[in-house]
TrEMBL record:
PANTHER family named among the record's database cross-references: CGI-140, PAT COMPLEX SUBUNIT ASTERIX
Annotated localization: Membrane
A GO MF label: protein folding chaperone
Name this protein carries in UniProt: Protein Asterix
Organism listed in the record: Dreissena polymorpha (Zebra mussel)
Family affiliation: Belongs to the Asterix family.
Length: 105
């Protein structure tokens, strides 16, 4: 019996009890931050270069950033990105009210 106990492959001194992570701790999902940055870049391109498709991409990125952000985060940056993208769409249509033509045509 003692020989079987010394040849135990389970190594009881290496066994650690599982402790689940705290669910209240925020995860490391960078998607809202990346979409927020892309929204700002597309907004600036839409405003400066008068590209309507860039302005619409900025609105799309802002929606994704807002949808993926947590309720506990500060929403000022997301709101400012959203407002900038809306202003890019409005300004691009005020300067040229014609319907948007896709960039591949």
């Amino acid at each position: 019996m003692s020989n079987a106990a010394t040849n135990d492959v389970k190594r009881p001194n290496k066994i650690h009890r599982y402790k689940p992570k705290d669910s209240s701790a925020p995860g490391d999902d960078p998607t809202p931050d990346y979409m927020n940055l892309l929204g700002m870049i597309f907004s600036m391109c839409g405003l400066m270069m008068k590209l309507k498709w860039c302005a619409w991409c900025a609105v799309y990125c802002s929606f994704i950033s807002f949808a993926n952000s947590r309720a506990s985060e500060d929403t000022k940056q997301t709101l400012s990105s959203f407002m900038l993208s809306i202003s890019a769409v409005v300004m691009s249509y005020l300067q040229n009210p014609q319907p948007m033509t896709p960039p591949w045509q």
